[in-house]
């Protein structure tokens, strides 16, 4: 029976480091204020003319392929998760496809925001289980530093997010009890406007005008308190759902790699599930929230640090805009 197994991990973050002190030059904030509310100390911002969402994805993908011992020519399909595509259309998956020597393979963008990488991983898993593809590249990449306004008006969200990309190579295997054991995906669109970017919008005859810019209607909106409450509800719920399906328990987890949304959410999740620090990956202090890029970046760093070992039970989980959330239970 076919399963899908991660055989290579990679990441890329832009060179430009932006500290909390740097942010305080543009808005009324401070290092203490940001750390207390988010746990973030610095983040990376893209370099115009050098970094694009698709090119950053390609850098991460090339590293993942090298570590998997694969070439781009051996990839059968690309799944690209992002909320910040290079263009309104086409998607960034096809733009990345031209960056490396891929064949004329299919490329599909996933608009799952913070849960995008989990959704993409789940879709890739199904393709492999059915035998349609043998080797799939799953990428999460974001440029968000130019979505937010560097001002007091945009402060509450601008300090949280950063730019970066991560990727994994997923391959077919017949090894028993290896690879992705299960994925769980959920959504609740009834609260979509509590974390969203409304404009430019296809709902209007004029998608963007000066009035929208002047009143800040083109800036993202987040009900931080509600997002926090829902994250603490659905994070542990979807992890337990996945574990129960494969007859495992919380104490069986060797490493939890959550979406890097907010350090306070990660700490609360640990307490709820009684998972010690050494079994949780947290790198939000270095990169901020890189949305679809956050889980593959965190997984890659954990692997590089020797925290991901053969036969370890690795749990990935995310919650974010949509609301959308999901988990992946993996035997490495």
How is this fold's topology laid out?
Layout: E1 3-12, E2 16-19, H1 20-23, H2 31-38, E3 42-45, H3 53-68, E4 77-81, H4 92-97, E5 106-110, H5 116-129, E6 135-142, H6 155-158, E7 164-173, E8 179-187, E9 195-196, H7 210-215, E10 221-222, H8 224-245, E11 255-258, H9 263-273, H10 284-287, H11 294-304, E12 313-320, E13 324-331
Helix pairs in contact: 8-9
Identify the notable features of this structure and list them briefly.
globular; 4-stranded mixed sheet; 2 domains
How would you describe what is shown here?
This protein is an alpha/beta fold. It folds into two domains: 3-176, Thiolase/Chalcone synthase (Peroxisomal Thiolase, Chain A, domain 1, 3-Layer(aba) Sandwich), CATH 3.40.47.10; 180-331, Thiolase/Chalcone synthase (Peroxisomal Thiolase, Chain A, domain 1), CATH 3.40.47.10. It has eleven helices and 13 strands. The strands form four sheets. It has a five-stranded mixed sheet. The chain has a four-stranded mixed sheet with strand order 8-13-12-11, sandwiched between helices. Strands 2-3 form a two-stranded antiparallel ribbon. A hairpin with a 3-residue loop joins strand 12 (313-320) and strand 13.
């Amino acid at each position: 029976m076919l399963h899908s197994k991660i055989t290579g991990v990679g990441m890329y973050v832009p060179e430009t480091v932006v500290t909390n002190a740097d942010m305080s030059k543009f808005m009324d904030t401070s290092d203490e204020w940001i750390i207390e509310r988010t746990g973030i100390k610095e983040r990376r911002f893209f370099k115009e003319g050098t970094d694009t969402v698709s090119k950053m994805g390609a850098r991460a993908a090339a590293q993942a392929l090298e570590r998997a011992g694969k070439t781009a020519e051996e990839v059968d399909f690309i799944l690209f998760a992002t909320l910040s595509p290079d263009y309104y259309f086409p998607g960034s998956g096809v733009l990345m496809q031209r960056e490396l020597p891929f064949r004329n393979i299919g490329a599909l963008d996933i608009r799952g925001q913070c849960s995008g990488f989990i959704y993409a991983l789940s879709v890739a898993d199904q393709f492999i289980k059915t035998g349609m593809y043998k080797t799939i590249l799953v990428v999460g990449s974001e440029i968000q530093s130019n979505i937010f306004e560097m001002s007091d008006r945009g402060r509450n969200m601008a300090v949280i997010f950063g730019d970066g990309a991560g990727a994994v190579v997923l391959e077919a295997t017949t090894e028993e009890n290896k690879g992705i054991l299960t994925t769980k995906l959920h959504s609740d669109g009834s609260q979509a406007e509590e974390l969203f970017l409304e404009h430019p919008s296809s709902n209007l005859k004029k998608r963007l005008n000066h009035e929208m810019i002047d009143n800040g209607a083109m800036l993202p909106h987040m009900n931080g308190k509600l997002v926090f409450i829902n994250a603490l509800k659905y994070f542990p719920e979807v992890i337990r759902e996945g574990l129960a399906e494969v007859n495992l328990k919380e104490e069986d987890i060797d490493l939890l790699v959550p979406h890097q949304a907010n350090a306070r959410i990660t700490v609360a999740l640990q307490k709820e599930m009684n998972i010690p620090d050494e079994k949780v990956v947290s790198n939000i202090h270095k990169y901020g929230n890189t949305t679809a890029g956050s889980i593959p970046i965190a997984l890659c760093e954990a692997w590089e640090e020797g925290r991901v070992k053969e036969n370890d039970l690795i749990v990935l989980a995310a919650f974010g805009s949509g609301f959308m959330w999901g988990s992946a239970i993996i035997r490495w």
